[in-house]
Structures are given as C-alpha cells and as structure tokens.
Design brief:
Strands 2-1-4-5-6-7 form a six-stranded antiparallel β-sheet, covered by helices on one side. A six-stranded mixed β-sheet has the order 8-12-13-3-14-15, with helices on both faces. Strands 9-10-11 form a three-stranded antiparallel β-sheet. The two termini are 26 Å apart. Helix 3 crosses helix 6 and helix 6 crosses helix 8. About 2% of the residues have low confidence. The chain has a domain of 172 residues: P-loop containing nucleotide triphosphate hydrolases (Rossmann fold). With 400 residues, it is α/β, with parallel strands linked by helices. The longest helix is centred in the middle third of the chain and has 51 residues.
Length: 400
Amino acid sequence: MHVRHLTVVDFRSYESAELPLEPGVTTLVGLNGQGKTNLAEALGYLATLSSHRVATDLPLVRFGASQAIVRGAVVRDGRETMIELEITPGRANRARLNRSPLSRPRDVLGTLRTVLFAPEDLALVKGDPGERRRFLDELLVARQPRWSGVRSDYDKILKQRGALLKSAAPVLRRGGRRGARPASEGSDVLAERESALHTLDVWDSHLAQVGSALLYARLRLLRDLGPYLGKAYDEVSAGQSDARVSYKSSLREEAAARITAGEVLEPGELRAEILTSLAEVRGAEVERGVCLVGPHRDDMVLTLGELPAKGYASHGESWSFALGLKLAAFQLLRHDLGDDPVLVLDDVFAELDTGRRERLAAMIGDCEQVVITAAVPADVPSQLVGRTYAVTLGSVTEVE
C-alpha cells in the first residue's frame, strides 16, 4: 500500500498544495513552522479521520476559510482508490471514494492505513491514560474498521449514562437502597426514584454489552502486540532493557488482577464483571455523577524491566518505548494485512542519538513507503535515500 499523490486545500497553513509520492522514502525538509508537519498530519487524517496534534477539526481549516479538503490517491495491489475528505467545523464532514459520496465519513476507514510517529507520541509514555487508550483504539480500527462504530456507540452510551447520573442524582440519593422507603416519603417520590433506578439499570446493560466487546478486543490486541513490542524496543535500544505492556482494568479487584496478568476473559464473562462492578460502585457514581467502571477508565501499563516506564524511564528510554509501540503497531498491521501501512515519521530523527538513528533506519529500510519530515537533511540517515521536497511557507518543491 502506498499513497501516489496528496492534495490539500485550505488545510492548516496551505491555501493549496500538491505532493507527488511514490514507494520508498520521501523526505520533507523545512525549518520549523514552514508546513512540513501539516502534510504529515494530512496523511494521517486521510487514514484515521483525526489529527495526532489536536482534538478537534477547527484548527485544521486555514484561517479565513470555511472548509478544508484533503485528497489522496491510494494504491493497493495495483488498484488505485481516491479518498476525498471535506472538513467543515460546526457541520458534518463529508467523504468520497472515487468521487462517489459516502453516507458516513468513517466508511473510508481501511482504505488507507498509516502508522504515524511524532514528538507528541512521547505522551504515550509520559502522558495520561487517555493517550494510551487512544493508541489502542486507533490501532483496533486500523486492524478492523468496524471498531470505529463500536467506539462511537460506547461514547454515546457513556454520555447518556453520565447525563442520567447527573440529572437524577438528587432523586437517587433519597432513600438509599432500592426498596428503602422512609415513612415520610410519598408514593410519587418513590415512583420517581424507582423509575430513575430502572433507567440506570437499562444504561448499565447497554454499557456492559458494548463495553465488554471493546474491552475484549483491547485485551486480544495487547496479547498480539506484546511480542512485536519486545522485539521493536530491543532493536531500537540495542537490548538495553525488556519492554512489556499490560492492561489495567477498572473492574473489581479479582477480575482486574486476572486481566493484568495477561488473561483474556471472554466477552460474556467481561459483561458480567462490568455489571457486578457497576453495582458495587453505584453509590459512589451517584455521589460523584460520573461513570467509574468501563473501558474509558482503563489504562495500558508500560514496563521497562521491573519498573513502570512512566516516572522511571529516562528521556531516551521514553522515546525508544514510544517508538517501539509505533513500530510494533506497524509490524502487527503488516502481519494482519499482508502488506505495509504507510509509515510517517514526523521530525523523529532529530530527537534520537546517532545509534538509535542508525538502528531505526535499518529497521524501516524494507517498508513499502516511508514519509519523513526533518528540519535539515543531515537529520536523516544517509541510507534512507529517496525523493526530497523542500517546504517553505506553504510551498512544496522537489529538490533535484
């Protein structure tokens, strides 16, 4: 799989730009602030419908423009597919495949697969759990695009259940347990509380059903990813330590311990455990007005040797771990799909010492397509030879 051509219109700093691409290595060279990362971001957006830099679409549209367009010609198995995305903040985005409109933008997912590594990915090691959950879920979608719909369903359920906890909290707090009725309490108040409890039970069931499917998929993903991570980190760091990953669940203690130990519980058991765990924390949820159990409260634990990477790993070790995760994702997708995703390395080599640069270059030498951004050509190892483009204030020109 490779991208033959990238077009952007009113995207970030670009009024318009064309970037011809081909298999092998393409390097975008330019000083900071010239727009090279914007092109890397556009490639990632074509594949994931999201940015690795910002959480919303608004910053992606050039100041003064009403919408941005990102278009890419993707070649796989000798067949070319054109992806076109219209990004319109405040309105629904639109997508086309081969000029044909799609009912949902997420239907383009899977047409292009990328693995993008950027300085922001250091947050995988040093950041909060949300960064690691996002990594897992985006890799799930890259493996099987249908998980995008599952994630969307889970987010909607979580939002509805959270709104119920907040709105019904005064009613749910009265009388304590279900069935407990103070003598002074009227039948209308009791009926109101019983109705709120019943509605909460319904949302518990929905959350457990969809949440167990998402959790099961994450656990299987980590089981598959682990061996690739160990190998990738070993190669990047020259065997300095042993990198491992485990899953920290918000379920009750016994189930959480089994999951942390690497056990992949079946969906039915996970659903039952979520329901039991929700029942145990219901009082706390009502008091706080938030959902305390589910995949949205979980974390991916990164370990170097016997110590957690977060808080103990050096800057170089943290970079190597984050890079190892992305290279492991690349190898997993390569194994699953039978061809390579597009590897995008955004301003990565400048952060690595000479040894890590050379080892990374050796690891990616056989990738079908690699797109690299760098401030100066000297940042890129000499063995990564290919087309080079100079990026200056939104202008992209090939360097002969």
